[in-house]
Amino acid sequence: MRLIRTTGRGSRLAQETIAALAQRGHHALDRVTPAVRRIVAAVRKRGDRALFRYAAQFDSLADADALRVKQEEMAAAWEGLDPALRNAISTASEQIRGFAERQLPRSWTHSPLPGLTTGQLVRPLGSVGCYVPSGRHPLPSTLLMTAIPAQVAGVARVVAVSPNPAPPTLAAAHLLGIAEFYRVGGAHAIAALAYGTQSIPRVEKIVGPGNLFVTAAKRLVAFDCAIDMLAGPTEIVVTSERGHTDAIAADLVAQAEHDPEALAVFITTRQELAEDVLEGTRRRSRNNSTARASLASNGVVIVASSADEARAITNRLAPEHLTVDSSADLDWIENAGSVFIGRWSAQPLGDYISGPNHTLPTAGMARWRGGLSVHDFVKLITVQEYTLPAVRALGFQAALLADAEGLAGHAAAIRMRMRPESSHTGRSRG
Questions:
Q1: Which one in 43, 95, 343, 385 has a CA-CA gap of 20 to 30 Å to 286?
Q2: d(Cα 260, Cα 289) in Å, to the nearest integer?
Q3: CB of 104 within 8 A of CB of 377?
Q4: pTM recorded for the entire structure
């Protein structure tokens, strides 16, 4: 990790570094987009024939019959799991489900004036595809985090895709009752979910993180199939004035071990704490090659001139994961995917078992959206019903607005309902 100061001789370098961090984005996607575009186009045009060719090439799928995971295989994975791990997965499932149930929006109606009823209906999406990575680390937790909110929302068809899914992932699918699980990944899996093939019918929305090829594919299909977000490498920011050195260092290393491209940042005003955390990360990453590489290339310790500056930098970075000292810090937080408070709130607890979703906005997207939630799997349909008195109460103003916009037909449709004779003419025909 590098240590930079916002004051003194290194202030210019610090400001340049912070500006670069704030502007981090998805530029790396451009490097793989041409190859991904060819894969997506091939699957869209040739369906299963292209899908199986790429699955054999990238996922080592030797037999097309093995594409769909059988229910018996998922059940066997569950039964073969260590009982303690089964209990852990069950506990995580209950925590995530309980949190999603509390998030679920409700249908409601309201009468702002006599004769007018407005409201909203909450309706689930019809189908969702959950992408579960299975590369450097198998991630059964991602299946829980993506499928459970969809189930809570009432999505009728929840599909999982994962290349070479590990037994714990298959076991989690059995626990959740996943009916469709396909042993495929990469850009070709995203294309199959978005456009459909004979073997994998299309879905209405694709959720879940993945590598550059997966993320680039999601960006390409986003006009034809809804997606959750473009999730990049994981990020952690810890902003602390009195944090526990070992706890801070441990969390920085924990998130850094996800990926060599992960971002780890510590922000403080205390020089001594900064140096202690820096040394702590070196010590804790000594035997963790991925974390060590990530911290070396993307790790930054920032010593700010004041608490206000530290807070401003934090909000400017809009991190995926943010740890702060106390609940009082919530007052100044504007941009963050998920917030962890105090030394006992280890960020990896949020990755697995707290309940809030671990699929979170990266690359500064926390400036305009939060993490994956049950809201991503429902539609809010607004409703309005007038009676004649309500039309007469609001119609004059509405017609004036239509006139101002030059939409004579709009104004006429309103005014014809305001006339007394409108209640006696134009009978409906059943």
A1: 343
A2: 9
A3: no
A4: 0.93
Q: CA 228, 30, 301 angle in degrees (round to 5)? A: 75
Active-site residue, from 244, 320, 405, 421: 320
* Confidence bin at 24 (pLDDT 50/70/90): confident
Cβ within 8 Å of residue 413, ≥6 positions away: none
**Under 8 Å between Cβ of 359 and 207:** yes
Domain boundaries 29-108+124-228, CATH class: alpha beta
Q: What is the C-alpha separation between 393 and 390, in angstroms, rounded?
A: 5
Task: Evaluate whether 74 touches 174 at the Cβ level (below 8 Å).
Answer: yes
321 is catalytic: yes
CA distance 132 to 124: 21
Q: How many CB atoms lie within 10 A of CB 256?
A: 31
- CA distance to 129, 158, 215, 217, 220, per residue, from 227 (Å): 9, 14, 10, 10, 10
Of 158, 163, 159, 167, give the one whose Cα is nearest residue 140: 167
Closest CA to 227 of 207, 212, 202, 209: 207
The catalytically annotated residue of 321, 375, 410, 421 is 321
Residues paired with residue 159 on neighbouring β-strands, in sequence order: 129, 180
Distances (CA, A) of 155 to 96, 101, 177, 231: 16, 14, 13, 23
Strand partners, 339: 322
Element (H or E) spanning 130, and its range? strand 127-131
- Rounded Cα distance, 430 and 286, in Å: 78
Which CATH architecture group holds 2-26+232-355?
A: 3-Layer(aba) Sandwich (3.40)
The yes-or-no verdict on residue 137 having pLDDT over 90 is no
Tens digit of each residue's pLDDT (9 = 90 or more) over 235-269: 999 999 999 999 999 999 999 999 899 999 999 99
Model confidence pLDDT, tens digit, residues 319-353: 999 999 999 999 999 999 999 999 999 999 999 99
Domain ranges for the chain, please list them. Answer: 2-26+232-355, 29-108+124-228, 387-423
Residue partners of 249: CB distance under 8 A and separation at least 6: 277, 280, 281, 283, 284
Inter-residue contact 17 to 316 (CB < 8 Å): no
Residue bearing tokens 């590598």: 211
User: Phi then psi for 379, rounded to 5 degrees?
Assistant: -115, 140
- Annotated active-site residue 79? The verdict is no
